[in-house]
Write a structure and sequence with these properties.
By secondary structure, the chain is mainly β. The protein has a domain of 44 residues. Helices cover 0% and strands 25% of the residues. It contains no helices and four strands. It is globular, with a radius of gyration of 12 Å.
Length: 65
């Protein structure tokens, strides 16, 4: 999938999270190398998220808690 093309992905939580990342970090697809990216740097619940070429920008930094 090339950057800019959207794909809807459904995630369903199952139980308590097992990972805790106290500082923001990127989430990268291990096969394609694309990173999870918040569209237009949105921070509110329900905002669009996409896979995008790695830019190391704030829109690609995530905190899991």
């Amino acid at each position: 999938m090339s950057p800019g093309r959207a794909r809807t992905v459904g995630l369903t939580p199952s139980g308590e999270p097992r990972v805790s990342v106290p500082t923001p970090d990127e989430i990268r697809n291990r096969h394609g190398g694309l990173c999870l990216d918040a569209c237009v740097w949105a921070t509110s619940a329900g905002s669009e998220v996409r896979q995008w070429t790695r830019s190391n920008g704030n829109a690609q930094h995530w905190r899991i808690s």
